[in-house]
Amino acid sequence: MNLRTTLAAILAIGTACGPSQEELDAANARIAELQGELGTANERNGELEQRIGEVESQNGELANRLRALGQTVEGLEGQRSELQGELNETQRALEELRERERQAQARLETFRNLLNRFRSMIESGRLRVRIVRNRMVVELPEGILFDSGRAELKESGQATLSEVGQVLQQVGEREFQIAGHTDNVPLGRRARFGDNWELSAARAVNVARYLTEQGVPANRISAAGYADTQPVSSNETPEGRAQNRRIEIVLVPSLDELPDLSSLSE
Question: Which of 5, 79, 110, 259 is the most buried (most CB within 10 A)?
Fold first, then answer.
């Protein structure tokens, strides 16, 4: 029974028959007891309200900390994703470098093998091997292959090209360009060819044709004439002009050795 109910009951009793002294004393004692309980309840309520305020304050701090933590975690996830992307890019670049190194080693090994196979011909002066723009070039002088101003192969030239063809057949999956070169001296009026362009091209074609007859696959050989546009020596001296009159067998780079230009396509 709460305080209001108790007071109402006391008043009802007093109205009905008049309270006795004992009843009044008991009522007063009960009122005092209830007032004490009410005070205790008020104190407890104040403590609870204070506790609620403290809890709400703590909840606010926790909420702020959680929000800050969420932002920090989000930032860390962003950094992690960025670093992972950089790592993937670095690994891709590393793989490309390793592949280029593998290709370079394979190309170097091919060059070494060819050089060894051509060793006897180099020592006898029938050809020389050069590296031009990172490509291996087998160079044969005009005097070994042709008479002056002519494109027909001499017997000595055929013998030399037969040995060259045997070596080229052993080079797997490689293409070769036969390049004809001349000096800058114009051909005479009675010459069979109109100019050095025609002469250099005819010589290159005849060498290419002869190598295919020796067993080098035709789909791995091309021919081109350069006339006097790519001299290797000065045309001011007889010795220089003799060096410029030559046939070159160029090892064409394979497709996987070339840079990837696919990103430039439209």
Answer: 110
